[in-house]
């Protein structure tokens, strides 16, 4: 199964609580932090809700 790299590029200050929880759940703590997550439907759905805060690319 493939993995994807998610990088937090914008701050969560002033964002709704549900978006903050998604960022925390993905393991992102501060700007420019990244996490390698599995590429499945659940992760894609979570990333879609915060796509304005993160960059996504394929991990090797």
UniProtKB/TrEMBL annotation:
Keywords: Ribonucleoprotein, Ribosomal protein. InterPro entries: Ribo_uL30_ferredoxin-like_sf, Ribosomal_uL30_bac-type, Ribosomal_uL30_ferredoxin-like. Signal peptide: none annotated. It comes from the Bacteria. Residues 4-54 form the Large ribosomal subunit protein uL30-like ferredoxin-like fold domain. GO terms for biological process: translation. GO terms for cellular component: cytosolic large ribosomal subunit. Part of the 50S ribosomal subunit. Belongs to the universal ribosomal protein uL30 family. This is Large ribosomal subunit protein uL30. It comes from Ligilactobacillus salitolerans.
